[in-house]
Amino acid sequence: MFTKIKHIDTAFQQLRSLALWVIVCCFSMLTTAFLLGYRLISRTQDRIYVLAGSQAIPAFASSTRDNLSVEARHHVACFHQYFFTLDPDENAIKRSLQKALYLADITAKRVYDDLQENGFYSSVISGNVNQTIQVDSVQLDEDVYPLKFRCFATQQIVRPKSFTNRRLITEGQLRQISRSDNNPHGFLIERWKTILNQDLSTQTRN
């Protein structure tokens, strides 16, 4: 009689241990599934898919601050390319400078007015001068606002009888404004000035 009771008690303990083990395993699996599901949901919230034909290409969302420095540098580069790229064509010069002046404040307009008054653009046209620019780098200080920048570039000036390389360094600051078709980056260059504009080399053309 006592032997049967002992066996029943042992079986009950084993059954209780098994039940506890099953509960622990289920709780662990539930916790793991919850964590994996949460991680998957977090990833999918930052992902969208763009349909290209019959393929779905994943695209990832990012904050505007992640692209702030990239857009700011590109804005500065675009301004300099529009302002300093000149062809011996009056209409081409006007179109390029009009695009540039949408990207900067009155400081750039004053430089343009001074050059215009001194006959610079007329001499470009009459002398068949072609001027291009390559922006080498743009240093950006994001710790202050408006953002401060310094632009390093190289100008190439082609005249009928010579070819000149010139070093150009400018600086200014960037203030955020509303985006538009004329200003897609949503920045405005302020207090723009030239720090250095120096000839590096001049070669005679054959």
From TrEMBL:
InterPro entries: Conjug_transposon_TraK. It comes from the Bacteria. The chain crosses the membrane at residues 18-38. Keywords: Membrane, Transmembrane, Transmembrane helix. This is Conjugative transposon protein TraK. It comes from Sphingobacterium zhuxiongii. The lineage of its organism: Bacteria, Pseudomonadati, Bacteroidota, Sphingobacteriia, Sphingobacteriales.
